[in-house]
Specification:
Layout lengths: L1 H7 L7 E4 L2 H14 L5 H5 L2 H24 L17 E4 L2 E9 L5 E3 L4 E10 L2 E8 L1 H10 L4 E3 L9
Parallel strand pairs: 3-5
Antiparallel strand pairs: 1-6, 2-3, 4-7, 5-6
Length: 162
């Protein structure tokens, strides 16, 4: 929490804020219900793994949707996608990209991969996400050389490109 307060909280106003509505949640929920071949949300709630799966799917789907807005391309249709096939890495503009999502109060923690660019997204709550910026591969080289195959807490938000 200390790193979040020191490095991220002061920058919140610099980040693009995405305030979502219930319709975003319902679109993702409907795809999960369809995936499990259920009739409604109540049947999904009866399955513990169904609720956990919905939460993970919502997080990924919204991160892909925000990234689509940033890159002005369509990486996901919230009305029509296969929940199990959601991936947070993709190839676009001749580059490898990976989306890193982290929760409010924490700092992003991930392994740096050489020649990968990162989209950093902060999830404040169910309906509020922040696009923090892009960590480009050329800025990752220092981390990669010093922290090869090590998960690290990323706090250098000044390296992010808007």
């Amino acid at each position: 929490m200390k790193d979040f307060i020191e490095h991220i909280n002061p920058r919140l106003k610099e980040f693009d804020k995405y305030e979502l509505s219930r319709s975003h949640e319902y679109k993702v929920r409907d795809q999960v219900i369809k995936h499990f071949k259920l009739n409604d949300i109540n049947q999904l709630r009866d399955k513990f793994e169904g609720v956990a799966f919905l939460e993970k799917t919502y997080r990924k789907a919204i991160a892909l949707w925000i990234t689509s807005k940033v890159f002005e391309t369509e990486l996901i249709k919230l009305d029509d996608f296969e929940p199990q096939s959601l991936k947070l890495n993709f190839f676009l503009k001749k580059k490898n990209w990976e989306i890193i999502i982290f929760d409010y109060g924490n700092v992003p923690r991930f392994k740096i991969k050489v020649e990968t660019n990162y989209v950093i997204i902060l999830k404040r709550d169910l309906y509020c996400f922040y696009y923090c910026g892009l960590l480009l591969a050329e800025n990752c080289k220092i981390y990669y050389e010093n922290y090869y195959n090590t998960e690290l807490n990323f706090i250098n938000f000044n390296l992010l490109k808007r």
